[in-house]
Amino acid sequence: MTSFGSTISEARKKHNTSQKELAAKIFKEDGTEISPQYLNDLEHDRRYPPSDHLLRQFAEKLDLSLDYLQYLAGKLPEDIANAKLNSEQVQAVFSAFRTSLKGNKDESNRR
Q: Helices 4-14 & 36-43, crossing angle to 10 degrees?
C-alpha cells in the first residue's frame, strides 16, 4: 500500500515543484504557510497526516483525489463522518464497500 507521505512526494515531484514551493502554497487555518520542514516530515511519514483543511489544499495543488488522500490518511470524508448514521446504515455501507473491493479483486484476477 502506498503511504500518505510517498503519495504527496511523488505528486509534488510530478509537478516539478520543490518542497519550499509547495509549502508556500499550503496555508494553515490561521492563514500562515506550512513550513518546508513540516512538508518534509509529512513526506517521510514522520508526522500524522494533516487536517482536512490541509488535505483539501494538497489535493487541489497536486491534482489528487481528496477521497484518496483521506483514505491514505485514515480519515473519513467530512460528509460521511458528519452523517447521522445508525448502526445498520454503517454496517450496510461497509458491507457494500467490501463487496465492491471483492468485485474489483475478482475482476483483476480474470485479466
A: 120
Quote the DSSP letter at residue 61.
H
- Centre a 10 Å sphere on the Cβ of residue 33 and count the other Cβ atoms it contains: 15
Q: Which fold has domain 1-75?
A: 434 Repressor (Amino-terminal Domain) (1.10.260)
- In this prediction the pTM is 0.83
Percentage of the chain exceeding pLDDT 90: 82
Q: How far apart are CA 55 and CA 10, in angstroms?
A: 15
Q: How far apart, in Å, are the Cα atoms of 81 and each of 10, 43, 52, 97?
A: 28, 25, 12, 16
> Which residue's C-alpha cell is 499550503?
26
CA gap 11, 58 in Å, rounded: 10
| Beta carbons of 20 and 34 less than 8 angstroms apart | no
Q: How far apart are CA 46 and CA 27, in angstroms?
A: 20
